[in-house]
Amino acid sequence: GKTMFEALDAIVPPSRPTGKPLRLPLQDVYKIGGIGTVPVGRVETGVIKPGMLATFAPVNVTTEVKSVEMHHESLPEAGPGDNVGFNVKNVSVKDIRRGNVASDSKNDPAKEAKTFTAQVIVMNHPGEIGNGYSPVLDCHTAHIACKFTELKEKIDRRSGKKMEDFPKKIKSGDAAIVLMTPSKPMCVETFSEYPPLGRFAVRDMRQTVAVGVIKAVDKSEATGKTTKSAAKAGKK
Description:
The protein is mainly β. Helices cover 6% and strands 46% of the residues. The chain has helices at 4-10, 228-235; strands spanning 24-32, 36-42, 53-57, 61-70, 73-75, 83-88, 101-104, 113-122, 129-130, 136-139, 142-155, 162-165, 169-170, 175-182, 199-204, 207-219, 225-226. The protein is globular and about 55 Å long.
């Protein structure tokens, strides 16, 4: 057999998702005198660098990234796991907020999710959940009420096999495929493409009553606002 060291050497470090398009959920947005608007958050996938044209979803605002900073040092780029602040031009603090997602306007830009389909497992809900239930979802940094628009199927939570079409109710221990509708604009992704933006907790009665992974997203194709600096930078 292998020695312990050979076994340890054989463990491949997890690949950091730098090759994917940028997804950076905002934790906060600051207004800093003399600099301007500085969104802050952790890069989940891809890289962010100065000169990039960033699109914020679901607000659909595109602007140029002027600088990227971590611990008060300017960076040529930041990647997955980095907590960064970045300066954006011509965007006010009122335009973007926590829960918005920054992305690269030229590489699969993030969009608003009109509806999404998720596999939900009910953990500890005291009653039953049916169509119309509207708890708060915590997904990346967003905290938004979403309606269980339609319980599509009840599934076996271990095998994933379908047990029942359009169940009336689900309760603790059940798993289901659910069509969900955010109560206000929200940006989410499928778990298969962008894992950190594709899983969520369902919060109700001050506890986590269910967890879910997103299987499909119906994205809004609305055209957004491009700032002057983005238009200029785009022509370069």
